[in-house]
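Help! Submission page says 'invalid entity' but I think these are all valid:
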Amino acid sequence: MRDCENIRESIGRWLDGELDAAESESITAHLASCDECRKARQQLESIQHILKTTLLAEAQQIEFLPFWRGLQLRIGHKTSWYQQALERARETFTLSRAAWLVPASIAVLLAILSLESYIPGWREGRNSFASVESIDAYGRNVALLRQNESKTTVIWLYEDQEGENETADEPAKSAPAF
Amino acid sequence: MRLLTNPPNQLRLFSLVLILAAAWVGAAEKNPHSVQVTIRTILAENKSDDYDPRLKGMEQQLKPLKYRSYRLLKAEDQNVPSKGTGSFEIPGGRSLTVAPQDFQDNRIALKVRLTERDKPVIDTTVKIPNKGNFILGGPPHEGGVLVLSISATAQ
């Protein structure tokens, strides 16, 4: 009896060809000698037959072509970048999460401020030149030069050519050379 | 303690701590105790093509002056108090005084005065970026001219 129960449980898989050769042979041999199990097999076969014919008949009425087209369209469809961004923003900026933006912004600001001590002048940009606020050369000529390449400011004092030099032998080239 | 388990309260506390930290950072920037002033005295001339290796890194700054030779005569640095004055001896009987005036937006205002045998040569106020420099040049010296690189670093 125990054998019959096991066999009936396996008949479905046997009919579907899912069993290995040894199991398949064992079931074939049992079915040849057991009337009850043979009846069970016939019942299963008839159920399978009915199902198959019914499904085939119904499937003919179903229009698969539009279904597949729709499916392909949906797979191939790409959402635009702004739709994706909008979706992401919606997910990110929920009320509770957005509240953290305030301290997060302060933290970023602090980080930027403290960067100055590690990378001097990075925030300066165009403001990295020295700027001359006031100048008094007591009647001497003064030239101001700003060199972009090295961000250098030069204050150059010079005298007219007839001005006095330190040594008479080698007159100083005091006039601005730039 | 229950207050601190409430997420909005945690958020407020965190913001407060950050604001205090920001205020501290801002205050730290505004009040340097002193300014380290460095003066490099360079002799620029056209007698040779020698470039003093001790002036390595200053090539770009000296390039527009168009002299052929540059020699470092003297380098001196002093820690000058925020409202104090530093005095530097410059070759040729000259003297340079540097007085930090103000520190704002990471820029140091320096009042600079060059005198020659006690007579004023130039008075100027220059704002330079922290750790930056400017060049004051032109006084004749030994057949060339003096070039002073004046740099300042907030301490």
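Support: the input was valid. A stray whitespace character was the problem, and the output above is from the cleaned input. Residues 35-61 of chain A form the longest helix (27 residues).
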